[in-house]
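Our working data are protein records whose layout never changes between entries. An example says more than a description, so a record of this kind follows.
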Amino acid sequence: MQIVKSEATSSGGKYSFKKLKDLSGDESLLTFEKVILLGIFGDAKIGDSVALSSLENNFYKNLESIRENIFSGLIAKGFYKNNPEK
């Protein structure tokens, strides 16, 4: 993923994320990382860009899944016996 800032505007510029490679089969990524990237890129193709502003009313829907996957990973590694948020 590449973060790109467009020309400066009165609001400070606009950011976008550019998809650089297919991550669907990348076993080096943790589950929560895959959920984050899927939340950003959805079904975007390699080379496509997603404006940060387009995530404003959508990305938050992924936060619960991201949080659950982070704690699942920590539990699996022995840092917690169970999810401390529950």
